Amino acid sequence: MKSYLFLFGRTPEMSWPELTVFFPQAQRLSQYCAKVDIAWEFDPQAFLKRIGGSLKIAEYIRLLPELGAADFVELITSRNGQINFSINSVDSSFTINRQLLTTIKKMLTDQGYAVRFITPKHDLSLSSVVYSTNNVTEFLIHREQSGYGVYKTLVVQDFRFWQQIDYDRPYASAKSGMLPPKIAMMAVNIAAAGQTQDKSLLDPFCGMGTILFGAMLANFKLVYGSDLDQLTAIKAEKNVKWLTELYELITKTKVFTSDATHVSDKLEKCSIDCIVTEPFMGPSKIGERKVDAHKVRNIAKGLSKLYIGCFRNWRILLKDGGCVVIAIPSFVIDDRIINVKSVVDSCEMLGYTKLLGPIEYARPQAIVRRQFYLFTYKNPKH
């Protein structure tokens, strides 16, 4: 049995349910980290490529009654005489004493090593970029009742991979599918509940295909995407082809043009396991602060009708026990929140059951804020 620490990114309330999909036994230690005891052979590097919400994985080393310099000198090794190290707390309840770092450095320097300690600039621990580019030995500390749990970072999220997915695809549009790839990956994993073999997924507002990318990387058997705009659907199809060739993926894909409220006309009934989508959230002018509160309220009413119409139609496609993960917007106008109302209540009247949500995702100072929900659908014919 080994214990591992998972450090979450900037959306911990999505990172946590994503992690528990794979590890129901996970224990949440703080807002930004969780501990998982694993009894089987575990490949941290391979697993970190499957998820979007965890930035790094660290392995439990030992419990210390106090944080002493000699203990860390014993743990730090060097192959070439150069040592870069970092020791960081995994929550904000306590900080690492700089004197501890200075003492460790002096002790290692006295042994003949060239030593540098690195401290985080903004976050609790080192960023993936800093860790990956500086050959750092990083220890993460969790304060426990009987002392301090010491974990050693094993692997960090591959920032180059996510940059490639986001920026190197043939087509991208800030106005057509603004969901970041890591958020899309989390939404897909939450929907799939850790099981993608022989499953199908649909994004009926696919935009440039970001959610389709997540489903393909998660090894869904069938992935469908549709968009009301024909040119957008064509671009999404080319993006999907690019990803398939780049990573030699075996997922079968189909991208087509369709109104999301009538998408059941294009696919076989009861053929979809998961619908994951960021729907149309109103004109881009809202985010540019070019629409007043009165107009935004009217737009929100229209979006409510659109979403309810979608949920009504999607019942035709979903298998019994199928699920929907959807981002429903709210708008912050003049320090007031305007919600898209009645969607959740209407869904439950249509036969859906809310399992999760709202989980908010928004960039700082954002006008349009997403609230993610997970619904499951019980087909009355079964």
From TrEMBL:
Ribosomal RNA large subunit methyltransferase K/L-like methyltransferase domain mapped to chain residues: 175-240
Gene Ontology BP terms: tRNA methylation
InterPro entries in alphabetical order: RlmKL-like_Mtase, SAM-dependent_MTases_sf
GO MF, any single term: tRNA (guanine) methyltransferase activity
Protein name: Ribosomal RNA large subunit methyltransferase K/L-like methyltransferase domain-containing protein
Highest taxon above the source species: Bacteria
